[in-house]
Amino acid sequence: MAVRDISHVELYTRDKVAAVHFLVSGMGFTQVADSVAVDRSSVLLRQGDVQIVVTSGWVTGKWLSEHGDGVADIAVTCDDVSETAQAALAAGATVTRSPQGNPVVSGWGGVSHTLLPASNAGPAVPPAGHRWTSSPKAPTAPVGRVRRLDHIAIRLEASGLADYAALCGEVFGLSPLPVARLVPGGRDVTTVAVGSASERVVFALTAADAHHGAGALPESSDPERVTGVHRLAFLADDIPVRGTRVQGRGHAGAQFPAGRTQRRARVRHR
């Protein structure tokens, strides 16, 4: 039932045009296909082995009202989809079905995991569940400096951190990685990292205690208290030293640090 790879991440947004522009212009992704259905409109972006689906439409309305713009689904490929879905049910997770019949495991913080067979996956294979129309002059092979996802950071309520880590181990077959305790900006933040044997699936699970006393922010205006995916970190080849920052809810900075041949470019969605 081991998870092998991340097929794609799907971003729900109120402004698809702005989100696509940011990822193409600021991060170097290429628009390779479009999909239009009755309840949604999606764009498929690709760079290296990374596929991002940007979706808007009325099907996203409830999710957006509860969580705001962000990553709604992390689709993973499995050795045995049926066995992984059964393990999720046994672990107490909620398992539904996508319109195409793929199992969808509900996580915490509004994040779900669509289960796809590893045998039908690949960096040049468009994600299942959409009727894709190729964009003009779309590349047929992976391009760009980004090679793959390095890790996905997911922020959780403190009470759900252990449960999500257990789900990752019992259901997805992810193993614990070194744990770090950080204290940024007056917070005590616990990070639990879990990863696959293939090293192509790594989740950094965090739970931050809110500020108390003078200077505390209300939960609705404090981005450190918003649960869900808050960072995608990419493993990239050598890239120019530059930074891109887009202001506004749902899009924050992409940083390109200097000093290493392989760099992690981060794009924050919250």
UniProtKB/TrEMBL annotation:
Pfam family, one: Glyoxalase_4
Region: Disordered, residue numbers: 122-142, 246-270
Keywords: Iron, Oxidoreductase, Repeat
InterPro entries: 4OHPhenylPyrv_dOase (IPR005956), Glyas_Bleomycin-R_OHBP_Dase (IPR029068), VOC_core (IPR037523)
Names of required cofactors: Fe cation
Domain of life: Bacteria
One GO term (biological process): L-tyrosine catabolic process
Class of enzymatic activity (EC top level): oxidoreductase
EC number in record: 1.13.11.46
Gene3D superfamilies linked to this entry: 2,3-Dihydroxybiphenyl 1,2-Dioxygenase, domain 1
MF (Gene Ontology): 4-hydroxymandelate synthase activity; 4-hydroxyphenylpyruvate dioxygenase activity
Residue stretches of biased makeup (Basic residues): 261-270
Location of the VOC domain: 5-137
Family: Belongs to the 4HPPD family.
Name the UniProt record assigns to this protein: 4-hydroxymandelate synthase
Gene source species: Streptomyces paradoxus
